Amino acid sequence: MDVLLQQLLNGLILGSLYAMVALGYTMVYGILELINFAHGEIVMLGAMVAVSLLTLLVGAGVPVPLALFLALGAAVAVCMLTGILVERVAYRPLRNAPRLAPLITAIGVSIVLQNLAMIFWGRQYLSFPPVQEVQVYDWMGATVTNVQLIIVGVAALTMGGLLLLVNRTRLGRAMRATAQNREVAGLMGVDVNRVIAVTFAVGSALAAVAGLLIAAYYGIAHYNMGFTLGLKAFSAAVLGGIGNIPGALLGGLLLGVIESLGAGYIGDLTGGFLGSHYQDIFAFFVLILVLVFRPSGLLGERVGERA
Amino acid sequence: MISILPERLSQNPRLAWVVFAALGLLLAVLPFLVDAGMGRTWVRILDFAMLYVMLALGLNIVVGFAGLLDLGYVAFYAVGAYFYAILASPQFGIHLPFWALLPMGAGVACLFGILLGAPTLRLRGDYLAIVTLGFGEIIRIFLNNLNAPLNITNGPQGINMIDPVRIAGHSLTRPIEILGVKLSGAHGHYFLFLVLTLLVIFIALRLQHSRIGRAWAAIREDEVAAEAMGINTRNLKLLAFAMGATFGGLGGGLFAAFQGFVSPESFGLMESIMILCMVVLGGMGHIPGVILGAILVTVLPELLRYIGPLQQELIGRVAVDPADLRMLLFGLALVAMMLFRPQGLWPSRVRARELRPDNPDEVRQEQESLYDRER
Amino acid sequence: MKSKLLIALVLASMAGGVGASETVMIGCVAPLTGPQAHLGKDIENGARLAVDAINASQPTLGGKPVQFELQVEDDQADPKTATVVAQKLVDEGAKGVIGHLNSGASIPASRIYADNGIPQVSPASTAVAYTHQGYETTFRLMANDSQQGKALGQYAAKLGKRVAVVDDRTAYGQGLIDEVVKAVQASGAEVVGREYTTDKSTDFTAILTSIKSKRPDVVVFGGMDPQAAPMIRQMRTLGMKIPFMGGDGMQSAEFIKLAGPAAEGVIGSSPGLPLANMPGGAAFTKRYTERFGKIQIYAPFSHDAAEVLIRAMLKADSAEPEQYLPELAKTQIDGIIGPIAFDDKGDLKDGPVTLYQVKSGKWETLEIMGGASAR
Q: How open is the CA angle A60-C225-C104, to the nearest 5 degrees?
């Protein structure tokens, strides 16, 4: 029982990280119907900027809360700028091109960002400076740490903020209008280009926060960390129903739990025939099954089958 | 200048023969010229270039002809390679002959293509891309782990000591003397690959100009309209997928026999993207362009090696490791090509006009058709 | 000793100007670009030190004075490139090869060397398969993964009767853990859990939780430091206070940096003796640092690789591979790294493995296992 509880907790924490990243995919897809392949790399960028700056500041004797605040601010700024730049340079000129074109540039941008990061930071792993003593709490036979609680808390706050932004503000309304019908929204006086740029900026800011949390949780950051993470988060977004914000949350949490329980129990369930080496397959299976049988995902309503 | 060549050739058969003869002669002596001028290494690089030409032409059927973005193409390559490796190595002590295994491997890859294609091909373009990507990863993960409880693929260790190609009982990895000309293993493979590459080019050309090829083009341009014209889009898309997979499987078998060693590492996502890069760079759907793309993408990284020593000479240290530049350049190339030259470096004339029309009426027409497609 | 060395160096610098002697080419291959470039350079420098010293001693073959020339090539740690440069060395007439670094490169390249009868001595590749392909030309100077896994397994069994293992599904990690499992069982302990991850993962909570439920006394990991570091951190946060062990992939300064305080008490193994314990370690370090700076890991091994190759040639009085290969197999010398002799596979006989433990943020030697001169 305590094992099951622990696995569920593991899954929920992992899932809340997926959810944060999945939001970025889903927002962009909702508005542009574009799979922003480079989103995972934006998360990586956020992590790398935050970790290197934090290391620098803490090393220079800046008090930890201030250093954290500055590092997060810098990461958010860098990611937002990169997000806007990527949209402006690589996606906007292709908005009316055949669908393959922006997808290929998206892959290209992803490779470029990854390799620029590699040249800039080198191939070494960066380590997250020890800014917070890890406390382990026992809870009904399972363990949680203060860092995990902080991560879940920050994730919940950010995502709550996003929901408010989208549902309660003028900007949010413009975003929803653009997502429904770009042309009509334009006719109604919405500056579509601006809304799209802002969407990228908001998604990238979330990515920066996610990057910092991921680096803090695992203690490391690396130029290569974004791609697989991005794919899994995308699968989560699809699972929940791409283009749907609550769907991304649900999909992220579910995928985290599926992976965790899957890796934990697949060996026992198959009598040792399959083992935890297949952990990474779950995300792809979920992706394929959902796309084939229910392309609209769990919460989506759109029919995703236009040519 | 080059792009007008085929048209003039088709009008002038005699000129065509001269050009073909010259080309044939050049291809026949190329390995010797390269060997003498640049060293045997470059013959081996040529071998790889041809292998990639075959793969790129296979992917081109899917991406270029039918307009389906396949990001897991390398899976079929892997299937072909492992099929050959398992049945012609000490792994199970089975040593079937190369010439029997090669078509069988291509057939098995084709079967995988159909198995994957059947449920997924009704998906929209970008979803299909993601699903194929997932499929590619799943295949790689299985290859990496199918060593227990029953050892099929030998897991991460890969399969080694794969039988080389044998022609008339002679192993192609060993040097041989024919008519007083000494041929190394690299030369032998060159001629084998050349023959197969020409065969693949021939098939691709015939396909493109066939009924099927025209139907693919119709699907690529407007699937709904194609369907309305009575084209069975589902079957034709499946056929494109299967054909592409077949070529991938063929390339895989050759790779396994040539390299003598396969491991799951060789079949990662980046390999898929490299092959995609070849197709995009050269010109999607245009066979000569794709060939050019494959050669460029194979040869350029080799040239990049010289950047290290060059930096040493110029600025006294190696500021940017050439190995680091390779992928960066490919990424930039993908973006730049899509933005500035979506028709590729060497596009077909039709496609070039379509994507970069110089006639304003055509521009409007194209935009309208795109607009239709989107909503 | 020191003055002799000085004379040798002076002579070496003069020998360059004489040029009347014949030269024998010895290939040296390692990744010189990319993430392992510094390790590749380490190999090159070590070999160069040996070659220069021998050249200075005015060696003769068949009565004629001879100079040995190191031909250095970059395999980019890539299996495909490895075969390309191997072919290049063969074509250029290398008589013996020092390299490669990565097992994934050594194995495919070894086929090309073996086909041409050229002996290959790897200073660094540890995969068992490398010397077990049935080639007579493959040798290595490092304890292989089997020897290392055995040492790890035996030590783990000493720490507790219930052992859990994790591998990262790379050729290295899987090979190592397979040997650990065998050794644990042979020592009368039990493997209570075997879990898997990848070389790109960072989240291990799921597999660690299921390991925890099996109540092991010790966890052994086969993989690299970027995975080992978060793994030990997550073990500690899951309340697992049992010992954690791993192979040379995580026995690095990087691991301690990444794992932070959680690294304390972790045990890591590494093939070969610690530099300080090598019989010729101190003198070699001095020679090396005077010329090239800091030793990474492999320099003593590549030095001895050059040494055994050339000594065998001198003993056979011929640089022709078929002449000196039998002498190479019978090698019996005291190298920098200790006494060197090969078993019938070409593996270092009784290769020593050293266990280290992190104590106050540093790797300290814990125990030396195996090795004829363990003291």
A: 135
